[in-house]
UniProtKB/TrEMBL annotation:
GO process terms (BP): quaternary ammonium group transport
Family assignment from sequence similarity: Belongs to the ABC transporter superfamily. Spermidine/putrescine importer (TC 3.A.1.11.1) family.
Cross-referenced PROSITE patterns: ABC_TRANSPORTER_1, ABC_TRANSPORTER_2
GO molecular function: ABC-type polyamine transporter activity; ATP binding; ATP hydrolysis activity
Keyword vocabulary terms for this entry: ATP-binding, Cell membrane, Membrane, Nucleotide-binding, Translocase, Transport
Organism: Aureimonas ureilytica
Catalysed reactions, as listed in the record: ATP + H2O + polyamine-[polyamine-binding protein]Side 1 = ADP + phosphate + polyamineSide 2 + [polyamine-binding protein]Side 1
Listed PANTHER family: SPERMIDINE/PUTRESCINE IMPORT ATP-BINDING PROTEIN POTA, SPERMIDINE_PUTRESCINE IMPORT ATP-BINDING PROTEIN POTA
UniProt-recorded name of the protein: Spermidine/putrescine import ATP-binding protein PotA
Amino acid sequence: MTAVNVSAVAKSYGKVDVLTDISTHFPEGSFTSLLGPSGSGKTTLLRIIAGFVTPDRGTVTIGSTDVTNVPVWARNIGMVFQSYALFPHMSVADNVAFGLARRGIKGEAARREVAQALEMVRLPGMGDRKPKQLSGGQQQRVALARAIVTRPSVLLLDEPLSALDRRLRQEMQVELVRIQRESGLTTIFVTHDQEEALTLSDKVAILDRGRIVQIGAPTEVYERPVNRFAAEFLGDTNLLEGRVNADGTVVAHGQRIASAISLPPVGQAVTLAVRPEKIEIRDASDPQTGTQHQVANRIRAVISASIYSGTAITYEAEAADGLRLKIFAQNRDARLRAPGEEVFLSWLPDHTVPLAA
């Protein structure tokens, strides 16, 4: 297992800054997702680590070796592309063995390595088939087998699941995690899919306009987004604009909102984020108004819309002063709250997250 370090890496194309002073660490044996919208720089960063792109400045270190100017073939990496990049005229076994042949491993030794790699991706006995005889998910497994058969130090994945349908994508997510855990490879995964990043990763790095705005464990970046971009990009969120009051609350839309997280100084404007699933919705006539009613934020509101999706219901509710909130509720009973119904909304101060400007 090998760690990867990126230090002060920058890349521009003409007058367009694609990456700006990126510095981060990918621990050995970790699975890190680079997450961001199109144009955020995530694929460029991956290609710099791979060696396909040379940074304008900064360094890339794999293990203890500075590989900034080392060619791709000498970096001991495995890479899986979005398009799979399999050779259609070659068998599965020959596709997997391609990297071994370039390293001078042939004959029985290569056959053993190929068999082990195909076993790891759960494609034993399929070495004689051609790529066109395989499903999309199977082709993706072949591409993975080809990437890991050379026993690389680092595995790089460039949106490898984006071409799969939802069912296959979910299956391959499980397989990717299993393969990464079994191989112990330091893995860097590019995706624009928020759920995928949260599901697969030990760490998630959120990129915006060539900078890493937040990096941490999935629970950390989701539960405690550092700024508005991170909060909005990673899942749904309610944003409340307000000002810090002398009593330690935030006055937003005429409501006093409590947060258990440190707030800016009194009088300063602040944006609060509240995830929709953190909000509890109760009948306006219920005296409890929430299981945590004595310590929760409570707002009286009126249901303005409801969307039924089987396992869950999405509500939109409107409170005083034009405050609109989205709520995700599990479908625990058959009753669907109708527009116009008065309710109480409550959530804990721990779930009120102040965002940096």
